[in-house]
Amino acid sequence: MRGLILWAAIACATLAAPLRAEIDGHGPDAWRVTGVAADDVLSMRMGPGTRYLVIDSLPPNARGLEQVTCVPLLIPLIYHKLTEAQRNALPPRWCLMRTGGIANLFAVRRLVRRWV
Description:
It is a single chain. The protein is 27% helix and 31% strand. With 116 residues, the chain is α+β, with helices and mostly antiparallel strands. Strand 5 and strand 6 form a beta hairpin.
């Protein structure tokens, strides 16, 4: 049930992506892939976790990804109220990112903000 609710939230975010990307202000519009070996790729997955099917991939030097939303949702107001132990206990974050008009999920540990 929890997974169904999570995917309903992601589906809503995806359908409203053009509007949401302009109004939510929770992330930069330019991200790049990081920590992926030159002879490897970053997997695009159907869901937030390695147990989900890989449906595509990005090269290790991919840039210009746009953040749509992330799970778990952790806005600054909540983040700053958590203790370090609570932050460390959170599950890994996965973000719905858009590249070339297609949105897919990526592990945040493999993405970094690209400030221009």
